[in-house]
Amino acid sequence: MRFHPGESAPDFTKEAVGHGPMTLSGLRPQRVWLSFFRDANCPLCIVRKEQLEKVMATLEPGALTLVAVFESPAADVRAWRDVHRPGFLTVADPGRTLYEQYGVATSVRAAVRLQPWVRLIASKRLTRAHLRPRRHGAMTRVPADFLIEGNGVIRDAFYGQDVGDCIPAERVERFVEVTSLSGSGAFIRPSTKFAWA
User: DSSP letter string over 101-126?
Assistant: First the structure.
């Protein structure tokens, strides 16, 4: 089941790796960018991380709380954090419960598209370590992004077209601008408990 703008975002409680238990509704009235990655060993996720952080860098501090979900155990996500030092919250979901809740699917057609792999090679981020057999996650998992208002309503739902897809920066910037003007969200810095690493 795919979600559409205007629908309520399913609530959940998960361990934010390196930060402790996190409940989506507990982040209110902060606006949330819920981003579904693939698994922590996916080389495309390094490029995706950089894309997300570039967008976040254009926004006012505290304008948006970014939460990234990985199809990997907490130990793998923790190791990924140690290496890549992301500036956002990360959640491990090896059981894929959140992927199922939000309708984040797999697609063979999306997985065989060459564009994301060409972009990866051009970025020079592919290493020998990434060629090892995958321990977790589906090779055909397609990313997705959800922009959630401070009241828990989904303002934008983006389901990728290939395995390296990411919501366009313009849609994120427009979301922040519109919700600021409408009063449905507020510029609130994350609390100390959920401070970005």
Answer: HTT--B-HHHHT-SHHHHHHHHHT--
| Tokens read off for 156 | 């934008």
CATH number at residue 149: 3.40.30.10
pTM: 0.81
Q: What is the pLDDT of residue 56?
A: 92
pLDDT tens-digit readout, 66-93: 999 999 999 999 998 998 889 899 999 9
Give the closest residue to 150 by CA, choosing from 16, 24, 10, 5: 24
Task: Report pLDDT digits (tens) over 19-34.
Answer: 999 999 999 999 999 9
Enter the tokens of residue 104.
Answer: 């984040």
The secondary structure of residue 167, as a DSSP letter, is -
Q: Before 116, cis peptide (omega within 30)?
A: no
Residue 138 included in any domain: yes
Q: How far is CA 41 from CA 3, 44, 132, 134, 167, in A?
A: 27, 9, 9, 7, 21
